Amino acid sequence: MKVIRNFFIILIICVVAIIGGRMTYHHHLESSSPVSAQQPSNNQWQHSSENRPYPNVNQYPRLWILVSKKKQRVYLINHGKVLYTMYASTGTGKNNTPTGTYHIQAERGLSFFNAKSGEGARYWVSWKNHGEYLFHSVPVNRQGQYLINEAHNLGKTANSHGCVRLSVPDAKWMYQNIKQGTKVVITNH
Question: Using CA atoms, how far apart are residues 58 and 145, in angstroms rounded to an integer?
Fold first, then answer.
């Protein structure tokens, strides 16, 4: 009887520790970076999301990417620590950004234009279906001019066609630095 009671006490302690750890981790995501809670300015799409250098990916071999559709943020994470937070705009409605675990693919490029949607972007990196779902800059028109009304949604509203939009400098950094095979986790949280 005493063994069973001790077992249940240990089980309860483990459950409380796991739940507390998850709550602490989510609180850490919300409070670890100055961009987590604040709303971006309307011209944020022209600037890096944080006022500090981007992480050197070579120093973080276990770096992975978390995309929060609820918060419209992209977190660069290493060993449970947020290294950098980026403003984002994900897809919505019939163009919803798919949730799940993916990996950065080989495909990347300086620019593209989709005649069907009438939009393109700069600095793209594929994470699903080899060029279908991307990280990329805020959208551009056929002439390569940024669509300001769309750009103003960055970090505020889900408004893409399923890709993850980033500020121009953030997208350029991702294009130039993020390694093929890097894990990408996309959540509704």
Answer: 33
Instruction: Find out whether 121 and 140 touch, Cβ atoms under 8 Å.
Output: yes
Strands, sheet with 119-128, edge to edge from the N-terminal-most edge strand = 108-114, 119-128, 133-137, 164-166
Amino acid identity of 100?
A: G
**Catalytic member of 14, 27, 103, 163:** 163
Catalytic hit among 136, 152, 161, 189: 136
- pLDDT tens for residues 123-162? 999 999 999 999 999 999 999 999 999 999 999 999 999 9
Is 189 in the active site? Answer: no
Q: Which of 129, 126, 136, 128 is nearest to 164 (CA)?
A: 136
User: Could you say which DSSP state residue 93 is in?
Assistant: G
pLDDT in tens, 66-78: 999 999 999 999 9
* CA 117 distance to own-chain centroid: 23
The pTM of this model reads 0.81
Distance CA 85, CA 167 (A): 12
136 noted as active-site residue: yes
